[in-house]
Task: inverse folding
């Protein structure tokens, strides 16, 4: 049901060598919401997001997806979680040797779908969804940065996940293309009931799309609330972050 807890993280700790990145993160993701993760660069947002889909396992703490513990599962057992949650990576990470259609349909092949008509139909559908109709045969090198992001988004949704994680979907895009990504995320949430977690440095987008904002600092959740509560906050850490970002993005 919309609003119930979809993913629950408790006491997540993660270090790489002697670098402590996450120091005990508690976070809930609710079904159907758009949750925006903010925080300084290098603060562990991407690392945290990778824990949401089992790409990283915590040193301590638990991740529970729909009531099932996933933070102790093997790669093979995790395929269940990977069907529910897909991640759009920070770099876009398209396969340069595959066409747009090849890239977008990749998760379908992975899932063992072989019917060409089914694949073609679904690829067409998701390319229309991301406003790239008819671009099936292009190679990634022939696309603009914004188009590549949208192909990555199409690939993230092709398997009908119930949750999509976006790691900086706006990075490197002009404001108009960035806005179109925001529209897509909102469509996915509102029209398709998909749960969304978005890492972004675009404070403008955060205010526009978020149902809830989580601000990470020093490896923990420093603050969480609604966009309006964030706007109204007098906390100097949040005010500095927002004003700094607002200047960067020329608000
Ligand atoms: N696999 C890894 N091995 C070693 N260190 C890592 C690994 N993954 C991340 N780190 C380190 O963890 C820290 C947090 O990285 P992370 O990518 O989560 O930051 P971030 O908040 O996403 O930053 P940005 O906003 O710049 O993307 C960084 O210092 C990074 O070097
Ligand atoms: Mg990151």
Result:
């Amino acid at each position: 049901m919309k609003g119930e807890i979809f993913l629950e993280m408790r006491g997540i700790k993660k270090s790489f060598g002697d670098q402590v990145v996450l120091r005990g993160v508690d976070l809930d993701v609710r079904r159907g919401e758009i949750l925006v993760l903010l925080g300084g660069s290098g603060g562990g947002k991407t690392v945290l997001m990778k824990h949401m889909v089992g790409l990283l396992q915590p040193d301590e703490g638990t991740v529970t997806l729909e009531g099932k513990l996933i933070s102790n599962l093997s790669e093979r057992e995790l395929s269940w979680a990977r069907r529910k949650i897909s991640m759009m990576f920070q770099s876009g990470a398209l396969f340069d040797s595959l066409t747009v259609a090849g890239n977008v349909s990749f998760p379908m092949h992975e899932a063992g779908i072989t019917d060409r008509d089914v694949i073609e139909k679904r690829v067409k559908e998701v390319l229309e969804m991301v406003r790239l109709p008819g671009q099936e045969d292009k190679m990634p090198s022939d696309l603009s940065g914004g188009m590549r992001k949208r192909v990555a988004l199409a690939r993230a949704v092709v398997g009908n996940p119930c949750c999509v994680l976006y790691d900086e979907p706006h990075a490197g895009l002009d404001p108009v293309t960035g806005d179109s990504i925001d529209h897509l995320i909102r469509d996915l949430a509102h029209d398709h009931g998909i749960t969304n977690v978005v890492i972004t440095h675009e404070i403008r987008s955060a205010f526009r799309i978020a149902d809830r904002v989580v601000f990470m600092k020093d490896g923990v959740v420093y603050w969480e609330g609604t966009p309006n509560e964030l706007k109204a906050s007098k906390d100097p850490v949040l005010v500095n972050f927002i004003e700094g970002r607002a200047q960067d993005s020329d608000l």
User: Anything to note?
Assistant: The chain has one domain: 5-248. Strands lie at 5-16, 19-30, 34-39, 60-65, 68-69, 85-88, 163-167, 195-199, 212-217, 220-225. The first strand starts at residue 5 and ends at 16. The chain has a mean pLDDT of 90.
